[in-house]
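sanity check this record:
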Amino acid sequence: MSHPAFLSANELARKIRDREISSLELTDHYIKRIEQLDGSINAVVVRDFDRALAAAAKADKELARGNIAGPLHGVPVTVKEAFNIAGLATNWGVPGLRDNIADADAEAVKRLRQAGAVFMGKTNVPFGLGDVQTYNDIYGVTNNPWDLSCTPGGSSGGSAAALAAGLCALEVGSDMAGSIRVPAHFCGLYGHKPTWGVVPNQGHALPGAVASPDLGVVGPMARSIEDLVLAMDLLAGAQPLNQPGWRLSLPRPDKNSLREYKVAVLPGNEIAPVDDEIAARVADTGEILAEHGAKVSDQALPDIDFKGSHEIFLNLMWSLTTEGVTEEQYLKARQLADSIPPEDSSDAAISARARVSSHRGWLHNNNQREFLRYAWRKFFDEWDILICPVFAVTAFNHDHSPINQRTLTVNGVPQAYLQPMFWSGMSTVSYLPGTVFPAGLGRNGLPIGLQVISAEYNDYITLDFVRLLSRHTGGFQIPPDAKPER
């Protein structure tokens, strides 16, 4: 096995257990790839190679004694910079926190480590995790392995770039407004945004923050759907404070073929138009499903106002962003919100007001969210799955101009830079699980990913549906410049 870099974590774990390769050999292999390839990609920005090699050697010794830590015994992984790893910096790309050294592992890191994973380091993020591009003043710019002039997405952009380039076996990211799903789409990967609350997020935080945030989730990213399932098996469970009395029992798949599924497809929406090629890929996927016996509809939708849903999402999401700001920063945000005419209902206006929302305002939007959750529940009582886009376009060229001045070109028409958050927010606001799968390449040679959504807690349903569907839509492809030399 000369070039194991792109094998699945499941397959690598089996090869280690069967003594076909040692953890030390595999870890050294990935480290050498990082040293050789990551200069141009800049994905693995926090490196912990010495401790990784020591952990790999220990894993091999334990295996020789007949001791297997778990299903990832000896498998080298990386994790998004936003997660604490004891002894390493966690700063979210914020220069003032450059020297914030974690004294304990995040809960997700603990769970993978207990399963035997070997951590080689952490991957890059945008400043404060607040962009669909990945760059900051501490670690610099991360490039997409498919095209170095393009972004890999954000905020789990370093995670996606590392996986796509074969620099690690598995990754853990986080997602509120598409931070797992958009990078998976841009880099041709599988990614899963879990139902809110089913994967602990302790240790995915800046200093002083211990409460679990609304909307945000922790979830896995991988090159195979089987690896997402394995990672969810390991990550899902009670938050540490809830462990004495809280148990999780997610529904398991009860269907064996695509023909047993009822699938709604949503190729586009006027609120956030998507590139015609992406919309066509959603429609084509519906045709593939129909050909294999699934009941498919491009008319079935939940009984909700999608514009209203998007506004609720914006209100709830942006209200989270001022929790840790200074008084001076808050006052500036207050002045901006007060300067906007009351009749302005643009996304920018809603977002500005949300940043200084009162608790009364938050309670109103939270109550409106409950109506959305009931509507989605009713919809998924009849339909098993909804397939829709992840983002309006494929990976785009780096653009580091002021964020409020950026635009995207969709079908030749300029679109507000953050308008495509509609597609991620649609499921986030109602706590729905979403799995992204690679659906082939676009005309520009860049990956297209699509999003599979189902009812709250149906995480394993979306994962298994994608497993069945991927037999007919392909899967992960190695970026041409990342292929191992023969």
